[in-house]
Amino acid sequence: MFSYRHAFHAGNHADVLKHAILLHTLEYFNRKDAPYWVVDTHAGAGLYALDGDWANKNAEFADGIGRLWERQDLPPILADYVQRVRQDNPDGRLRHYAGSPWLTLDALRDRDRLRLFEMHPTESGVLAKNLEQTSRQHLRQTTIYATDGFEGMKALLPPPTRRGLVLIDPSYEDKQDYRRTLTAVKEGIKRFATGTYAVWYPLVQRREAADMARQMERLPVKSWLHATLSVRRPSTDGFGLHGSGMFLVNPPWTLEAALKEAMPYLARELAQDDRASYTLQYVENPAAGKA
């Protein structure tokens, strides 16, 4: 087991990018009446106290959601995200943060389903206890697996609804996670080609991260979107997270326009030095273009 805890980074710049995109994607899914499934391969505990020991160790949320909390000029995709976080902080003080399981559960309709994987025994236990505090409806919609999400997701694809989103966001502290993520996406596409796959990954000075991103851009899929946000220059010692990326297979067609407005804003407002930057690329029918 690794020392990684989702709470350690809860609400940081990487969560801002990941969760804003997640919420936009779920809202897009909800535009159609047909039910869908969401599979989260590395769920974490679901809910985090930003005034708790783990979150306060580096207080990373202060340079993430904290910088957006009082802003009145947010682009729509970020305004929706901040408004959702405010639902867990009704007194206006930023003390609680919902991870991807809770953000997803809140967005689901009655017939939609959520499947969560979390291998870390402490995290999966807290996740289960958190879920027990919710409604019967949420309990009926959700299944938690204390097993490997890379392997477990395969048995769930395609979902019975033939509509679905797969979120893959391991810690990548084990460099094999890069290879396993790419393999999971490839195998997922074989089983469920029309599904949406959302992959989060860190921007770090590690060859595996860049290699994985390049290989995902070569996948024979209908469309993909690749967004990266760097908030500072890479550290001289080669350690540390200076940004993150989101790669989506079959993304909502509305996402590119939303991010064209949001990414420059994030690069400016979440910057930690003068090297903050972003990239955004959307490609349709790349496989057809290679034929």
UniProtKB/TrEMBL annotation:
Pfam families: RsmJ. The keyword Electron transport does not apply. Signal peptide: none annotated. GO terms for biological process: rRNA base methylation. Keywords: Methyltransferase, RNA-binding, rRNA processing, S-adenosyl-L-methionine, Transferase. Its EC number is 2.1.1.266. The record marks Y4 as: Interaction with substrate rRNA. It is an enzyme of class 2 (transferase). It catalyses: adenosine(2030) in 23S rRNA + S-adenosyl-L-methionine = N(6)-methyladenosine(2030) in 23S rRNA + S-adenosyl-L-homocysteine + H(+). GO terms for molecular function: 23S rRNA (adenine(2030)-N(6))-methyltransferase activity; RNA binding. S-adenosyl-L-methionine binds at H19, H42, S100, E118, D148, G149, D169. GO terms for cellular component: cytosol. The active site is at D169. Belongs to the RlmJ family. Monomer. Specifically methylates the adenine in position 2030 of 23S rRNA. This is Ribosomal RNA large subunit methyltransferase J. It comes from Bordetella trematum.
